[in-house]
Write a structure and sequence with these properties.
The protein is an alpha+beta fold and about 140 residues long. It is built from five helices and four strands.
Length: about 140
């Protein structure tokens, strides 16, 4: 299937996809801050620059997009197919990179919590029961 956009339009559209300060990430940040947790953003000293670093709790929170990181069994993740070989290879590369990053973080002694953006946080909904459950589970993991 041919792309519906010309090369310049597609390039512009792809450049607008954010990697930092995404809506799901901000939802998690606001929730943690409201519950008294303090964190640093995009730890530059750590491999892969994780989204949230809670040094006091020795924990890294990585908020991932289901599509780009091929969330297993998710209707937004691995069940979505794309005819573009370039995008398919980027998704597979992201999964391989994620495995390496998690291994490096765990080897360095960090606890890692992965939150899946679209299916666990449902950022497009104003209120989500699933989001509340996910964030409360996160709170419980941090308090343990």
């Amino acid at each position: 299937m041919a792309d519906v956009h010309d090369i310049e339009t597609r390039s512009y559209n792809m450049s607008q996809i954010k990697g930092k300060d995404t809506k799901p990430e901000i939802l998690v940040r606001k929730f943690l801050h409201a519950h008294g947790f303090r964190y640093s953003l995009h730890g530059k000293k750590l491999p892969g620059k994780p989204d949230l670093v809670l040094r006091k709790y020795n924990t890294i929170i990585d908020v991932r997009g289901c599509f780009w990181h091929l969330h297993a069994g998710c209707k937004y993740g691995d069940q979505v197919t794309t005819p573009s070989e370039k995008i398919t290879s980027r998704r597979k590369t992201a999964v391989e990179r994620d495995k390496v990053k998690i291994a490096e973080w765990k080897d360095a002694g960090w606890d890692v919590i992965v939150i899946w953006a679209e299916c666990e946080l449902e950022p497009k909904r104003k209120y989500s029961e699933k989001r509340e459950v996910t964030l409360n589970n996160l709170l419980n993991k941090l308090k343990e």
